[in-house]
Amino acid sequence: MAAEQLLRVNGLTAGFAAGPVLFEIDMEIARGELIALVGANGAGKSTLLGTLSGLVRARAGSIAFSGRDITNARPEAIVKAGIAHVPQGRRLFDTMSVEKNLRLGAYARRDGDIDTEVRSVLEYFPALKDKLNREARTLSGGEQQMVAIGRGLMARPKLLMVDEMSLGLAPKIVDRLIDVVKDIHSAGTALLLVEQDVLVALDVAQRAYVLENGRMVLAGAAADLRDDPNIRKAYLGL
Amino acid sequence: MTSVDPQLELKNVTKRFGGVAAVDDVTFAIGKGEILGVIGPNGAGKTTLLNCISGVYRLDGGDVRWQGESIAGLAPFRVARLGIGRTFQIVKPFTSMTVRENVVAGALFGSDEDRPRLGAAFGRADGVLELVGLRSKADLPVSAMTIPDRKRLEVARAVATRPKLLLLDEVMAGLNPVEIDDALEMVRAVHQSGVTVVLIEHVMRVIVGVCARVVVLDVGRMLADGPPDVVLRDERVIQAYLGERYARRLRGS
Predict the structure, then answer these.
(1) Which CATH number fits the domain B1-83+163-253, given the four candidates 3.40.50.1220, 3.40.50.300, 3.40.720.10, 3.40.50.720?
(2) Which of A169, A234, A237 is closest, CB to CB, to B202?
(3) Which of A43, B33, B69, B97 could covalently link to A39 via disulfide, CB atoms 3.0 to 4.6 Å apart?
């Protein structure tokens, strides 16, 4: 990879009390790259995001970010280091306002530049402008996903991880969110997308990784994977 | 469009929250044996409509008629016992129980017609598990199940109530295209066992895959009603719901 390395995962094994879910995962992401992570339900995609966020314990192997070891670091330290996680199902603070949800995304930051960040999130998502005082739970599913992504951006991440962005959303809303993902990428942020709409993910990503039963079985240019007959059969149903 | 034998009729169904009509004067009928898709933007009133049918919400106007008789105002369990089963978007299985026991619960508390005793309920549960493709997982605790299997279980619990009409609320959300194709097989199997199916989905692969007819809701109102190949090309539906990228995909294929 020519570009400067941002994330390097080496031989990572991780999981829960019942046993490991991920086995000897190798993965790297360059600064500013847009990566898709593809796999069946239960393959371990969300567990991998959880391990990168410090929510799931690594049992072996290492995770380095911006040249520093962050293996089993505390989640707040990982957010400070520059990884933000937009979890599956949005997980907003339902009874808090949209604005408070956004500002909480900047909780780990110590600089005073948070108002500017709110403004820049609203540039990505103008639909939220007149809803800042609304309780998060009163928003539509699409708007809630906008808040969840916005909250991630408030941490000013170098890497934004988005889990199942399109879940339960109308096709037109998914389109709009994909456009925003492209904008975020153009602004220089690296992204890691976990997406069941595999075709959409491979359309937008530069490279992709394929996870099967907790093991990374394939990595390559997204366009190549899209044309790979095995991928088309196993994940695209074509 | 509607067959000669309407099983469920919605007549001017209206449901308001505060001053806002979430479902606004919706009228259509579902014929026995149909598979009907319901699509529309987030917040269009799709789940609210299911809640109006299944008795979760009281109507603010209009009527819901089941096999010719009004069921408006009936409690949800009474609607279920008349033969209208449903699933929920957020699945809530009994997590301390096995897969089979979850389905037995559905069999025991379902439709009035031919409700089984405990022993027979286990037998019926196994039949339903076979139908939805979960037979080999019957003895597993629910906690060990993947998302697609939990969705199947949600369908199995509803099927075990012996519905004549099954309302499915986004049972394929979060599945990848190949998992969706498997789930479509399950829906076809349930349908072939003699059940009318109404399904809410955002995944067009589902709508095109099994529905002969699709109803589009937008801001609580009916926007379109017809076969998928007509409705999904309707400019108003593309504007309100599908968006240009999908329309391009459709034209390209």
Answers:
(1) 3.40.50.300
(2) A169
(3) A43
Pairwise CB contact (< 8 Å): B240 & A172: yes
State the residue for tokens 């004067």.
B25
CB contact under 8 A, A175 and B202: no
Nearest-CA distance A80 → chain B (Å)? 30
Domain containing A9: what range? 5-236
Nearest to A28 by CA among A8, A48, A50: A8
pTM of the model: 0.87
The count of domains in chain A is 1
Contact criterion met (CB below 8 Å) for A22 and A217: no
For tokens 């599956």, what's the residue? A88
ipTM associated with this complex: 0.82
Residues of A with CB under 8 A from a CB of B: 40-42, 140-142, 164, 167-176, 178, 196-199, 233-238
Contacts A199 to B, Cβ<8 Å: 177
A235, B202: Cβ pair inside 8 Å?
no
**Alpha-carbon distance B44 to B221, whole Å?**
8
Q: Which amino acid is at A38?
A: V
B89 or B16: whose pLDDT is higher?
Answer: B16
Q: Do A235 and B205 touch (CB under 8 A)?
A: no
| Cα–Cα distance, B176 to B1 (Å, whole number) | 31
The rounded percent of chain A whose pLDDT value lies above 70 is 99
Q: What is the pLDDT of residues B48-92, one digit of tens each?
A: 999 999 999 999 999 999 999 999 999 999 999 999 999 998 888
